[in-house]
Amino acid sequence: MKLVEEEHGALPPKDDFSGWYNELLWRAEIMDVRYPVKGLYVWYPFGFALRRNVYSCLREILDRDHQEALFPLLIPENEFAKEAEHIKGFEEEVYWVTHGGTSPLDVKLALRPTSECAIYPMYSLWVRSHADLPVRIYQIVNTFRYETKHTRPLIRLREITSFKEAHTVHATWDDAEAQVEEAVKLYREFYDILCVPVIVSRRPDWDKFPGADYTMATDTIMPDGRTLQIGTAHHLGDHFSKTFEITYEDQRGEQQFAFQTCYGISERSVAALISMHGDDRGLILPPALAPVQVAIVPILIGKRGEEVEAAARDLEATLKSAGLRVRLDTRDMRPGAKYYYWEMRGVPLRLEIGPRDLDASQVMAVTRLGNKTAIPLDTISEGVMVRLSEFADTLRERADDHVKSRIHISGSIESVRSAVECGVAVVSWCGERGCADRIEEETGAAILGTGVRSPFIESKKGRCIVCGREGETTLVGRAY
Ligand code: 5CA
Ligand code: ZN
Fold it and tell me: What's the whole-model pTM score?
């Protein structure tokens, strides 16, 4: 069997992030980008297995106090047009279905860019009394956005295949605010499982979700220093409940408009996971998400091949019954080629077993970061579990170091300009649009958010770097 490496040369180094990312996606069999529609991509089975693991973590977190449901893809134009801000924000991005066969439709149908206008007419029927509240429902679906910026697999799609959107309804504005905080907390927990450090901030008003009171964003810093928005939570106030007539009867028997939130995550979560941890040799996956957690490579050269293979099969059975995702690789290839293959796919731990290991009743365990130790066969499951758990800790530390190293506290526009070449700047900003424009024009970066929350950033009052008035801790960076 010919190695991908022999045919196509080595993977571009991660320093060339864009080249690395694009090549890695097909070499590690995550996405195939050859589908003939711009912005639409195909999940390979291995990529899909990774997606499934990521989304089952997300489901597990949400299922504690949310319910999963499923709403239609098509939204009639009249429903879509109801909320003025919302339609204004999305009108350039909507795909329209105009015909059934050759007959023009009476009412055009939008492919959902997000599902407010599919869900809220139903909420208007479902919500009756204060006893029905809060409502917390989510769905995981595809959505369509006619993105005009440069499209990129998993990052900027025209068909978002894995859009998790939660939509909640509450009795008061404060209850909805508390839900936004809860959503931010859930997203932190989710990204902690992915070992992806996040920075939370409040988007400036001109960058909030169309139709929201305010937007809380979760960003991470990619290997090239640009930020990626990997989750948002919006306080919708009563804008949508007023247009869709979502009312409830309060304790005194009076009709009240409800307050709402929505929050979403897409396959950008998978993009962040891949980009944060991978290296020049391919993917590196945290054990909790890896489709294959342990690859067993038997060293089958020499006379004792059968004996080694039998031992490797026992090993596979033992680890499988301990609940691990294991692959025994008995393909007729050089061990080195197998190592390369599993490294590219991010497998956290490789176990090598040969005649000499059998004599010593052990296997050699090599982590995806090259840490090599022997594990005695009689405590193999425990030994593997410990190494996987240490491996996850190491990934978390590496990722923290990366993000920390890309954050620069800046006291002047010049300092912001150099900081955003390779990361983000943390500044004080007074909140005035004029000062924001100055910062953005002179640095080429954007105001990402205020009230920054990150273990690596101290949030405090300071003087606006433009006008000197009192300002808030603000994140500035170049976003994907
Ligand atoms: N209805 C709300 C909450 S579900 C909503 O649509 N919010 S959003 O527009 O901010 O999208 C939620 C998240 O989806 C974003 O934070 C971003 O991480 C991701 N996302 C948005 N557009 C795209 C896109 N074109 N490709 C991939 N992911 C996207
Ligand atoms: Zn200012």
Answer: 0.97
Does any ligand 1 atom lie closer than 6 A to the CB of residue 153?
A: no
CA separation for the pair 384, 247 (Å, rounded):
55
**pLDDT exceeds 70 at position 6:** no
In 2-118, where do the E strands start and end?
31-32, 42-43, 67-68, 74-76, 96-100, 103-111
Which ligand minimizes its atom distance to the CA of 148?
Answer: 1
Ligand 1 atom nearest to CA at 233: 3
The answer to whether the CB of 152 is under 6 A from ligand 1 is no
- Could you say which ligand is closest to the alpha carbon of residue 435? 2
Cβ of 157 closer than 6 Å to ligand 1, yes or no, is: yes
Average pLDDT over residues 41-63: 98
90 vs 38: CA distance, rounded Å: 19
Task: Tell whether ligand 1 has an atom less than 6 A from the beta carbon of residue 216.
Answer: no
User: Which atom, in ligand 1's list, is nearest to the CA of 115?
Assistant: 1
Q: Of 470, 452, 449, 469, which Cα lies nearest the Cα of 461?
A: 470
pLDDT surpassing 70 at residue 69: yes
Q: What is the pLDDT of residue 9?
A: 83
Q: Whose structure tokens read 């409830």?
A: 248
**Ligand 1 neighbourhood includes 268 CB (under 6 angstroms):** yes
277/91 Cα distance (integer angstroms)? 37
Residue 455 token pair: 């273990």
Report the alpha-carbon distance of residue 258 to residue 242 in Å, rounded: 8
